[in-house]
Structure formats: C-alpha cells, structure tokens
Automatic annotation (TrEMBL):
<dbReference type="GO" id="GO:0009969">
    <property type="term" value="P:xyloglucan biosynthetic process"/>
</dbReference>
<keyword id="KW-0325">Glycoprotein</keyword>
<keyword id="KW-0812">Transmembrane</keyword>
<keyword id="KW-0472">Membrane</keyword>
<dbReference type="GO" id="GO:0042546">
    <property type="term" value="P:cell wall biogenesis"/>
</dbReference>
<comment type="function">
    <text>May be involved in cell wall biosynthesis.</text>
</comment>
<keyword id="KW-0961">Cell wall biogenesis/degradation</keyword>
<dbReference type="GO" id="GO:0032580">
    <property type="term" value="C:Golgi cisterna membrane"/>
</dbReference>
<keyword id="KW-0328">Glycosyltransferase</keyword>
<feature type="transmembrane region" description="Helical">
    <location>
        <begin position="6"/>
        <end position="29"/>
    </location>
</feature>
<dbReference type="GO" id="GO:0071555">
    <property type="term" value="P:cell wall organization"/>
</dbReference>
<protein>
    <recommendedName>
        <fullName>Fucosyltransferase</fullName>
        <ecNumber>2.4.1.-</ecNumber>
    </recommendedName>
</protein>
<dbReference type="InterPro" id="IPR004938">
    <property type="entry name" value="XG_FTase"/>
</dbReference>
<keyword id="KW-0333">Golgi apparatus</keyword>
<keyword id="KW-1133">Transmembrane helix</keyword>
<keyword id="KW-0808">Transferase</keyword>
<dbReference type="GO" id="GO:0008107">
    <property type="term" value="F:galactoside 2-alpha-L-fucosyltransferase activity"/>
</dbReference>
Length: 531
C-alpha cells in the first residue's frame, strides 16, 4: 500500500522544527559548565529581593540576627520580626553566646510565669492578700507606661535588662498605644499586664509619696521597723526622683529588693549606665555584653518589632523614596522652643553641620553655569530624610537644592514623611508615624540628631549609628559654634543619673567610677556607655 505523500511531507516538516529547537538549545547552553544546566533553579511565581541586595544564604542566616531572635514564631503575624534584617545593614557586632543563652532561658521563664499561667495566678494572690511569707515561685517587674514614645522605648529596654539581671519576668503596662505599636516579643505568652491585675488602676497614681514607694519606705524607716516583707514595692525612677529613690542603684538596696516578688517601676530615663555602677551586676553585664556599647542595639532589636501597620509605613516609604539612593542621610530635628518654625538660627546650624562635616555637597550660588561630564544616571544620588514636627526645615533644604546646583554634581532629593506640628502622645496614628520615622532614620548611612532627644537616641541605637549631634542653640537664639559633634558611641544618654557613692555615702562624680561610664556629648551631667 503506497504512502500518502501529504503525510510524508508533514512528517519532514515536524522533524525540521524539532532539529531547529535542538540547535537553538545547544547554542544557548554550549558555554555553560555541565553542572550549571543541571542546577538551574526552578521557576518561581514571585521572586522578591531584599533592598539593595541579592537573595543569598547570608540574608537567610541573618534573619535571626546572629541567634538573637528565636526561630519558629509565626512570621505573618509580625512581618518586621524577621524582615528587618533585609533593610538594616549587616550586624556591626555579633551577640555573645552567653546573651543568646540567657535570652532563651528568659523566654522559657516568661512562658512558665507569664500572664494567666498557674504560677502567675498564684503570685497575683500575694498582692490581693497583702501577705508574703518570703517564698515565691516567680518574681516580676511591672513597667508602667509613662512619657513620650522615645522615652518609653528607652525605659522599657532598661527595665528588660534589669529583669534579665535579676531573673524577673517583665510585664508591660499597655498604656494607650503599646499594642498598636509593637508586636508581642515572646511566643505563646503575652508580655502585657492583664487589665484585671490588682494594681492596674493605680498605675497613674504611683509617685514618690506612695506608701509602697521604696524611697518613701526608706525615708520613713518603714523597712527597718517591719518584721515582714511587702508583696510589692514601687520604684520611682523618673527625673524628679530624690536621694532615697536613687538608692535603687546601691548594692545593699538591691539585696533587699531581690526579696520582693513584685516590683512596679515608673521611669522616663535610660538608666542602663548606672547598672554598671552596681558591683553585683558588673560581671553579669560584662558576660552578656562584652562590647558594652551594644546594649541598646541588641535589646532594641530583640524587643521592639513594629506591628504590621507600622512596618507597612516603613517599607512603603523606604521603597518609594530611599531604596535606590547611593547614599542616605537622616536628619532628626527636635526644637524645644515653642515658636512656630522654621527658626533661622536652627536651620543655619543644621546646614553648617552638614557642610562642615561633608555630609551634604556644597551648592553653587553663582549665576555661572556648571557643566558636568557625567550623565544624570552616572551622578551620585543622595536622599535626605528629615523628621521634624515642623515642615519648614525640609522645605528650606529642598529649595536650596532645587534653586542651586551642587558644586560636584550630586543629585540631592529631600523627603519628610510626616508634618504633625505638635506631639500627640495619645494619638495612635501619630505614634505609629513617629515609630516608622525612627526606623527609617535607623536605615540611614549617616545620621544627624538633636541634643537631648530620646527620639534620636532610639534611631541611632536601632541602626548602630554614631550620629553627629546638633548642640543646643545658644540661649541668645543664635546658632552654636561648632554646630555639631560626632558621637563616639551609639548608646543613649542617661539624663538624670545619681551622683552618689554608695560605699562612701557621699556625693560623687559617677562618671569617674568605672572607665566605660562617662559623661554624654550632649548632656554634660548625663551618663553614657563607651568602649
């Protein structure tokens, strides 16, 4: 039976097409080593790369920040916990193995003794009964929400470190906004104090005159005249604390406080530097933090994970305005004067700092044009992120770089995420924006901060940045000269430290007691940690 000629021709056409495909594939892959073809990745539906980086094993490993963060916590409920590593620079320092071990032990303790556990319920009964026989299965430190957001973050980090040193479980007063700002840092058991806690409605009334205040009890000899221990003691460590309150920083007083099952603390100070002046804590602190200037850097990255709402603000702004810049400069402006800004002498001081420290390029104010050899794509791009309650400062910077070319050809863009005009500590959206701005500042390559500002302290600590600190302007409302000073440590400053030698029982300069605790660059009487 003869073959159909049409079928035969069709067969030849199909064979020709198949040979063409084979020849094309051989051209594409002929220069690849054999294992390259074998190991080609499978196609992904979505391939999201971290900013300014390629996906690699180092990024995956750093997600836990060198072991600082525990693994296994649901990622979708708090995206920032593990995503922040993709935006921050690689860790400047590695957490010590001892710190990592102690954090895992703390997490186990928190799970065992945290809110609504059997041990917690038993411990709460001590407060309700007012009776304490000297034996408790769990000990607690209750942190009262107090002051602005920057202060709250600094004091909460201080309280957590004190809890770690004294084997206490840290419980947090949710205040007005805390649950809307930060994710729960610990798995399974909350760190927020339940609203049915017996002292919950008294938090706002605690002060130096409270009968259960430690300073009050010392001043009125309540402790020495009593044969029993109280189930709880209030610690007043705010700026207005007195000499009796400051005994908290003495070893012999810590010996008493460690016997009390419940300590309730109110403070607006980053008191970590003075913990180094307590001899019984010094060795443990050195074991936890061999590099002493990393305390807030590690504790903040461990504790403070912005909620998904806040993290969305951070990511969207960073990706839209900052990610593609060759260099990012953060400028945090906090003006204590109540006048409507921008204040010329403040603006002059900031510009003077950026120019003298070569943080921003000079501008050409002459009418003579400047011709650059590079194309716009080849010229360096600088994104300036300004945070301030007043919009005027960013407008002046933007105008300066719009109306005048830079002398050396850089392209400078100026951005300000929010313009809230005044601080609104009880407004959730206002504080969410403030927290997002702290994180955005921490992603800068260089940072300028305002003297005395806890907002700036948080940003520099989160990013591990040594900022240029703007001096407070002169009292006659002129710019300070020099305009700024470079910080030698990214640790925050303790604004109201004790000036008391517990051993000699005399006033003293506590900046001279140990070599790594000295006065701050911006607050001459404050204390700060240095290497």
């Amino acid at each position: 039976m003869a073959q159909n000629p049409l079928k035969f021709i069709g067969f030849l056409i199909i064979c020709g097409m198949f040979l063409t495909i084979l020849l094309t594939a051989s051209v594409i892959f002929k220069d690849l080593p054999s294992d390259s073809v074998k190991n080609l990745p499978k196609a992904n539906i979505v391939d999201v790369k971290p900013p300014n980086a390629t996906v690699n094993s180092q990024v995956q490993k750093d997600k836990l920040l060198g072991g600082l963060l525990p693994s296994g916590i649901d990622e979708t409920s708090c995206l920032s916990r593990y995503e922040s590593a993709l935006y921050h620079k690689e860790l400047l320092h590695k957490p010590s193995s001892y710190l990592i071990s102690r954090l895992r032990n703390y997490e186990a303790l928190h799970k065992q003794c945290g809110p609504h556990t059997k041990l917690y319920n038993r411990s709460v009964e001590l407060i309700k009964s007012g009776q304490y026989n000297g034996s408790a299965e769990c000990n607690y430190l209750v942190w009262i929400s107090f002051s602005g957001l920057g202060n709250r973050m600094l004091t909460l980090a201080s309280a957590f470190l004190y809890a770690l040193l004294t084997n206490r479980v840290l419980l947090v007063d949710p205040g007005v906004n805390m649950p809307g700002l930060f994710c729960e840092p610990f798995q399974d058991v909350s760190w927020l104090i339940p609203p049915d806690f017996p002292l919950f409605n008294q938090f706002s009334t605690f002060d130096q005159k409270s009968p259960r205040s430690y300073g009050y009890m010392v001043k009125h000899n309540v402790i020495s005249n009593s044969s029993t221990l109280p189930p709880y003691t209030y610690l007043h460590l705010a700026n207005d604390y007195d000499d009796q309150d400051k005994l908290f920083f003495c070893d012999q007083d810590q010996s008493f406080l460690k016997k009390i099952p419940w300590l309730v603390m109110k403070t607006n100070n980053y008191f970590v530097p003075s913990l180094f002046l307590i001899p019984s804590f010094e060795q443990e602190l050195s074991n936890l933090f061999p590099e002493k200037v990393t305390i807030f850097y590690f504790v903040s990255r461990y504790l403070f994970h912005p909620t998904n709402s806040v993290w969305g603000l951070v990511k969207r702004y960073y990706q839209a305005y900052l990610e593609r810049a060759d260099e990012k400069l953060g400028i945090q402006i906090r003006v204590l004067e109540t006048d409507a800004g921008p204040l010329k002498y403040v603006l002059d001081q900031i510009i003077d700092c950026t120019m003298k420290e070569n943080l921003l390029p000079q501008v050409n104010r002459s009418s003579e044009p400047i011709v650059f050899n590079q194309s716009a794509k080849q010229r360096k791009t600088i994104s300036v992120l300004i945070t301030s309650l007043c919009p005027g400062y960013s407008e002046e910077f933007r105008k300066m770089y719009w109306e005048n070319p830079t002398v050396t050809g850089e392209i400078v863009s100026v951005y300000q995420p929010s313009q809230e005009e005044y601080q609104q500590s009880e407004n959730l959206l206002h504080e969410q924006k403030a927290l997002a701005e702290m994180y955005l500042l921490s992603l800068s390559d260089n940072l300028i901060t305002s003297a005395w500002s806890t907002f700036g302290y948080v940003a520099q600590g989160l990013g591990g940045l040594k900022p240029w600190i703007l001096y407070k302007p002169n009292e006659n409302r002129t710019a300070h000269n020099p305009p700024c000073v470079r910080a030698t440590s990214f640790e925050p400053c303790f604004h109201a430290p004790p000036n008391y030698d517990c051993k000699k029982i005399t006033p003293t300069d506590t900046s001279k007691m140990v070599p790594h605790v000295r006065h701050c660059e911006d607050v001459s009487w404050g204390l700060k940690l240095f290497e």
